[in-house]
Amino acid sequence: MTKIDVYERKKLAKRRIKPTVITIFLVIAVIVAAALLLVYKDKFNLTTQDKKTFVYSLSIIVFVFTLLLFYLILRLTRPWAILESDLNNIYICKTAEKEIVVPMVELKSIKTKIKSGKKAKKVFGTLILRTPTKRYKVKKVIAVDEVEKEIFVLLDKLQFYLEGKRQGMIEQEQLQANRYKKQ
After folding, report:
1. What kind and span of H or E run contains 26?
2. How high is the pLDDT of residue 172?
3. Average pLDDT of the chain?
4. Strand, coil or helix: 48
5. Closest CA to 154 of 77, 91, 79, 73
6. CB neighbours of 82 closer than 8 A, spacing ≥ 6?
7. What is the edge-to-edge ordering of all strands in the sheet holding 124-130?
């Protein structure tokens, strides 16, 4: 029989990052196009008033899309593993510093909402964990069904571990009771 390490963390789910990467490339393309238009503004037949408006508009576009690019890069640096677990808890990783801890014994139900396209290679969706006090929604999880199955396997392991621990405690109490009877 193998020994179960109760505190070993296992990564359960990963976040989708492909849309964020594609959006970053599109934002970079828009910034480059706007910068090129700013450089070649004299090639267009514009009046001085139209030229000022054109330069002002393109400058605002470059500024806004640069801010959007910084936001997307920060979003890309978030942790990819969004669900981790040991035998006692499930950890929902929001940022590198912020983690939500959901005790396994408090889980009431686990639901999945699946989103998939026609040519999708990987099924992704939302995982909903319910406890008696709160409902936790984890979005953009790759292979939601597999994650749900892994959580159920962990719950079975936890139940087996707790039953073994309870049985061991009962045997320990019986041994102590026998010792007291002998004395």
Report:
1. helix 18-39
2. 64
3. 80
4. helix
5. 91
6. 13, 14, 15, 92, 93, 138, 140, 141
7. 109-115, 124-130, 135-142
- Token pair recorded at residue 63: 């500024």
Alpha carbons 106 and 97: distance in angstroms, whole number: 24
DSSP letter for 153, please.
H
The whole-angstrom separation of Cα 13 and Cα 127 is 10
Cα distances (Å, whole numbers) of residue 137 to 41, 64, 77, 82, 134:
49, 31, 21, 11, 10
Residues of the chain with CATH 2.30.29: 10-15+80-182
CATH top class, domain 10-15+80-182: mainly beta
Residue found under tokens 């936001």: 71
Query: Does residue 131 sit in helix, strand or coil?
Result: coil
- Using a cut of 0.90, tell me whether the model's pTM lies above it: no
* pLDDT surpassing 90 at residue 6: no
* Residue pointed to by tokens 């026998």: 178
- Maximal CA-CA distance, the chain: 108
